[in-house]
Structures are given as structure tokens and as C-alpha cells.
Amino acid sequence: xxxxxxxxxxxxxxxxxxxxxxxxxxxxxxxxxxxxxxxxxxxxxxxxxxxxxxxxxxxxxxxxxxxxxxxxxxxxxxxxxxxxxxxxxxxxxxxxxxxxxxxxxxxxxxxxxxxxxxxxxxxxxxxxxxxxxxxxxxxxxxxxxxxxx
Length: 149
Prior knowledge:
By secondary structure, the protein is an all-alpha fold. Helices cover 56% and strands 0% of the residues. The chain contains six helices and no strands. The protein has helices spanning 12-23, 28-32, 42-54, 56-61, 79-98, 121-148. It starts with 11 loop residues before the first helix and ends with a helix.
């Protein structure tokens, strides 16, 4: 999917592109580096972003049939595999976003959204964008710290 085919209201493309730029040259050592006990790795963060993008609930809450299954989520063992998994998850997210009409994002989510029922779809979109943004920033910081150690 190209940038021009994405809905203009889906700002995650800019954030994802910035994260992709920061992942260039990521090594397996960086990917698995634990900067301190109990501090999650870059690998964990990339998997978390990917899971957030690909969760079945995203489709269900937007009243779409999921194209991915939660049971198929993985924790990639290498940096290259983690980056590829993130990219495929983002591609699925953008396809989901492209399936919405612009006015649909303001439609309240149904009871399937549990405690978020009644909230507009844009609330879920904002949550996913927040996860992509703040965990992406953490990845960038961890890369800087790894290089400076």
C-alpha cells in the first residue's frame, strides 16, 4: 500500500516511517540487549507494537472480519525477523484503516468493544497511534543508549 492510498486521517504513516528509519542497521545484539534488569528489550518493544497493530480486536471493534489472528502473534528471535513482523503488522493495520470511510471513525463502537463500547472508533485509532509513537520513541532511545554504552 502506498502513502497516497492511505486515508488522510490515518497519521500513523508518518510515525511508522520515522520508526523504520531508526531501525536501519539494527543488529541482533541491539535487538536482544537488556539495558538493566527488568527493562524490556528493543525486541520486546517491536513485538508489542506489532501486536497492537495486528490485534483481532482492532477489526472486531471496527466491525470488520479480522484478517489476522491473535493466536498467530510471535516474538521474533532476530532483528531482521522482528522488523519484518512489524512491517507486516503495520501493512495489515493500514489496510484496516483504508477500509473505513472517513465519517466512520466517529461511529461509536458496539458492545463488542467491552469497556470502550460507545466510544468512537477514532479513540481506538488514537490508542494504536499512541502505542506506535511512544514505544517507537523508546526503541530510538535504546538504540542511542546501546551505541553510547
